């Protein structure tokens, strides 16, 4: 009988310890939910340059519903816009911390070689700009980021359907 009580108490003690470890681990993971993102748009490219992680997100503003300053909802669907695409560049340094200071410039070339130049504005922990990518085809995106002590250059292609 004493042996059974010792086994039950040992089991309860191990269960309590395991439960404590689970709660400790889950509280340390707050803010690390990979299914949620505060990033704007759809991820279209990621790259590593000199230890910096660059993540590019694209959003078609024509497909979005925008809220005006008065709080009323304005449906942007189907509206004519000169630059209906919003590109966001998020940068993380070698220590996985967001880069919040710097300048980002973009050159977007369409399949015909027509160039658009745009400066990124700091917003939402990244650098964003609007461009025209309405024409179907492959676009080349060239990026130059100037940080305090470093210049980062990157390029990739993205197909618009």
- Main sheet makeup: 8 strands, antiparallel
Envelope shape: elongated
Number of domains: 2
Q: Determine the N-to-C terminus distance.
A: 74 Å
Query: Number of helical runs?
Result: 1
CATH fold type of the largest domain:
Immunoglobulin-like
- Beta content comes to over 45%
Report low-confidence residues grouped into runs of 5 or more: 20-35, 67-76
Strand order of the largest sheet: 1-2-5-8-7-6-9-10
Give an account of the 3D structure.
Strands 1-2-5-8-7-6-9-10 form an eight-stranded antiparallel β-sheet, with no helix packed on it. Helices cover 17% and strands 45% of the residues. The longest helix is centred in the N-terminal third of the chain and has 27 residues, at 2-28. It folds into two domains: 1-29; 42-160, Periplasmic metal-binding protein Tp34-type (Immunoglobulin-like, Sandwich), CATH 2.60.40.2480. The protein has one helix and ten strands; from the N terminus they run αββββββββββ. The chain has one helix at residues 2-28; strands at 42-49, 52-60, 65-67, 73-75, 85-92, 103-109, 115-123, 126-131, 137-146, 151-160.
């Amino acid at each position: 009988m004493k042996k059974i009580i010792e086994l039950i108490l040992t089991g309860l003690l191990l269960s309590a310890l395991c439960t404590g470890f689970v709660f400790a681990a889950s509280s340390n993971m707050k803010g690390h939910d990979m299914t949620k993102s505060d990033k704007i748009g759809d991820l279209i490219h990621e790259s590593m340059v000199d230890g910096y992680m660059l993540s590019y997100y694209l959003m078609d503003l024509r497909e979005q519903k925008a809220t005006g300053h008065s709080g009323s909802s304005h449906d942007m669907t189907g509206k004519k816009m000169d630059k209906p695409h919003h590109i966001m560049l998020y940068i993380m340094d070698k220590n996985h911390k967001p880069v919040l200071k710097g300048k980002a410039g973009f050159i977007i070339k369409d399949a015909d070689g027509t160039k658009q130049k745009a400066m990124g504005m700091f917003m939402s922990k990244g650098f964003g700009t609007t461009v025209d990518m309405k024409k179907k085809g492959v676009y080349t995106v060239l990026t130059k980021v100037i940080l305090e002590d470093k210049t980062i250059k990157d390029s990739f292609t993205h197909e618009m359907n």
